[in-house]
Amino acid sequence: MTHQHTHRPPHAGTRPPRLTEVPAFGAMIAEGWGTDVVEVRVPDGTAEAAAAHRARLAERLGGRTVVVGAGRAPVRSNDTSYDFRADSDFVWLTGCQVEDAVLVLHGADAVLYLPPPARPGEPGFFADAMHGELWVGASPGLGEWERALGVPVRPLADLEGALAAGSGWWAGRALPADVVTRHGLEPSAELARACSDLRMVKDAWEVAQLRAAVDHTVTGFEAVAREIPAAVRAGGERWLQGTFDRHARTTGNGPGYASIVGSGPHAPTLHWVRCDGPVLPDAALLLDMGVETDTLYTADVTRTVPPSGRFSAEQRAVHDLVEKSHRAGMARVRPGVNYLDFHFAAMEVLAQGLHDWGLLPVSVDEALSPQGQHHRRWLVCGIGHHLGLDVHDCADSDWQDYMGADLEPGVVMTVEPGLYFHAHDLTVPPELRGIGVRLEDDLLVTADGHEVLSDALPIDAAGIEAWTTARLPAGA
C-alpha cells in the first residue's frame, strides 16, 4: 500500500522536527538513551602548566580580574562553520579547548564557565545541529572537565551572574562583543601584551609539546618526500600539501598553519598556500610545514629539496648562500644576546653574497644601512620569530619587549633566511629567475647556547640531496 502525502511536512530536508509541530517525535526521541560518559583527554602536566601560567599572569597584573574567552568558530558558509580552534591565550591559561568557554580569573582564583553538553532528554540534543550530541557526538561534561583541569567549572549560563558582580574587569579579545558591552568589561591591550610577554619564555611542559610538534613535523617531511614522484606525475603541489596535512591531522591537531608547497616559479612566493601548480622535476621545491599538537603548540620548519635528488648548479649556489646565512644567524642564538642579532648576522651574509654576484647596485655597507636595505628586494620578510601556541608567537608584545630584549633560556624561536628570485624579476640573470630557497629551523635557547630542535633534517645541499634521494621510491 502506498501512502500519498498531500503536503510537504514542516521538517522536510535536514531540519529536525520541532516539538510544537510534531509532539510524538519529541516524546519518542527524548527516551530510551543510555549514558555515554566521555572523559577529558589532556596530556600529563596540562593542568599544572595552566595553573602556573595563571599564577604568572596574576602576578604580572597585580591581582586584577580578567575575563578570557575561548572564542567561536567563524561561519564558513550559510549554516556550516570552520573547524574550531581555541584562542591561544585561553588555552595557555586553561588547557581547555571548548567553544564559547570563558575563564574568569580573580587574582590567582579561577572559575571556568563551559556550555554543558546537549544530552538525551534535552531539546538541544536533536534540535541543535551545531552542538547537540545526536549531531556531533558525545562530549565531556562539566564534572569531567573540573577533574581534568583542577579548576571549578560552572555552566556557561552562570556567567551572567558572575560578571554582574564586577566592574573595571579586563576582557580578552575572544569574548563575544555583546558580553563585553552588556557587562561593561574593558577590552584590554595590556592583557594581550601581558600574556604575549609571558609566553615568550616556555616552561618545561611547553618545551616538551614543541619537541613533539617538531618530531612529528620531521616525519611529515619524510612522508612528503616519499610522495614526490606521484606529485611530479600528476598530483602536483596539492598532493604534497595534502600528504603533510593528513599526516599532521593523524599525529596531532592538524597543520599549525597553511602548509606551503612551492615548486619552481612558485617557490619565491613567501606565502604560496594556493598550491595549485605542478611539481616540476628539475625545479627546486620549497616545503614550509609544521604539525600542531593536540595541545595546539606548533612547529615551523622549511627545507628546499630537489625532486630529482640533485640540485642544478644555480640552485645549489643559491642554497649554499642561504645555508651560510642560516648558520651565521643560528650562531648568534644564545642567552644574553639581543634578539635581533641573529637577524643582522644572517642579513650581512646575504648582502655580501648578493654583492659578490653583482646584484647589489650599492656597497654592502650602504645596503645594510637603515636608509639602504637594497638586498631586501630578494628577502622582504624577517629572518625569524618566536614560536609556540601561535606560529608567529607573542605578536602582541611591544617592539622593545619582542625585538629589543635579550634572549634567555626557554625562548623558542625560528631562524629562516631565504632568497627569492621571482620568475619575472628582470634585475637578476635569467638562470636565477624562478629559484626560491628557504631554510628554517626551530631553536630552543638553553643555559649556554641553543638546541636545534629540528636538526634531524639536514641543512647543507649535499645532505639534503642524500636525504631526498634516500626517501624517493626505488626506480623513481
Automatic annotation (TrEMBL):
Required co-factors: Mn(2+)
Entry's Gene Ontology cellular component terms: cytosol
SUPFAM superfamilies registered for this protein in UniProt: Creatinase/aminopeptidase (SSF55920), Creatinase/prolidase N-terminal domain (SSF53092)
Pfam families per the UniProt record, alphabetical: AMP_N, Peptidase_M24
Record field: catalytic activity: Release of any N-terminal amino acid, including proline, that is linked to proline, even from a dipeptide or tripeptide
Domain Aminopeptidase P N-terminal: 48-180
Tagged with keyword Metal-binding: yes
EC number assigned by the record: 3.4.11.9
Family annotation (CDD domains): Prolidase
Gene Ontology molecular function, alphabetical: manganese ion binding; metalloaminopeptidase activity
Record region (Disordered): 1-20
Gene3D superfamilies cross-referenced by the UniProt entry: Creatinase/methionine aminopeptidase superfamily, Creatinase/prolidase N-terminal domain
Compositionally biased spans, kind Basic residues: 1-10
Keyword vocabulary terms for this entry: Aminopeptidase, Hydrolase, Manganese, Metal-binding, Protease
Domain of life: Bacteria
Family statement: Belongs to the peptidase M24B family.
Protein name: Xaa-Pro aminopeptidase
Organism field: Krasilnikoviella flava
